[in-house]
Amino acid sequence: TTLPTLKTPAPERGSRIPPLTLSLVGATEEYVSMPLNISSSHWACLVLDSARKTIYCYNSMDKRLHHNLLEEHRYQITLVHSPLQNDGYHCGLFVCLFFWRRLVNEVGSDYSESGLMRRRWNILRMIVQATMNKDSKDQSN
C-alpha cells in the first residue's frame, strides 16, 4: 500500500505528489488510469477508483522500498497482483499490457521474450489502426 518516491522540482520540500496527480483526486469519473514514470527510469500505473476511495498501483518490478504519499487524502493504496517482469527493460510494455487488459480481456499470458515482442507489435498495430481510423473519420467530415 505504498508508492515510490517521486523526483520533484523542489527536492528541499521533500517527497510530494505532482499537482497533475493531485488534480485527479477530485476527478468525477469512476475510474482514472494513468501511467507513472518513477525517477526517469521505471514505469508503473495508477488506477484511481473514486467510488471506493482506492488507488491501485501496478508495478511490474514489485519493488517494496516505497512510502505512502496519498495517505493525507484518505485514499487506500492497493498493490495489484499481476505478472512480474524478470528484466530491467520491459516495464513500459507491462504498463501498456495492464491498460490493455482493462479494455480488452484477450491480452494473452505468454511472457517469454517472443511473447512480449509479439505484444509490442500488437500494440503498435492497434495504435496505427486507431490513427488511420481517426484520420479517415476526419476526412469524411
TrEMBL record:
The keyword Protease applies. Keywords: Hydrolase, Protease. It comes from the Eukaryota. GO terms for molecular function: cysteine-type peptidase activity. GO terms for biological process: proteolysis. InterPro entries: Peptidase_C48_C. The keyword Cell inner membrane does not apply. Residues 1-102 form the Ubiquitin-like protease family profile domain. This is Ubiquitin-like protease family profile domain-containing protein.
